[in-house]
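User: Reviewer 2 asked us to show a designed sequence for the structure in our supplementary figure. I'm pasting the structure tokens here. Could you produce the per-position amino acids so we can include them in the response letter?
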């Protein structure tokens, strides 16, 4: 994933987190076609806790 695409994705996730009741959102990104590599991006709203 290109860095600019990741920045855009994070901006979208932060917007979703602000609209959610829990104040957070997450998305798992999968690597190649075998899905051996995964990254989970977590976007909490400032001042909220992960419980």
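Assistant: Here is a per-position design you can include in the supplement:
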């Amino acid at each position: 994933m290109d860095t600019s695409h990741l920045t855009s994705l994070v901006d979208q996730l932060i917007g979703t987190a602000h609209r959610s009741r829990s104040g957070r959102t997450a998305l798992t990104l999968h690597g190649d076609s075998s899905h051996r590599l995964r990254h989970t991006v977590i976007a909490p709203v400032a001042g909220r806790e992960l419980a």
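For the response letter, you might also mention the following. The CA atoms of residues 28 and 44 lie 15 Å apart. The chain has one domain: 3-44.
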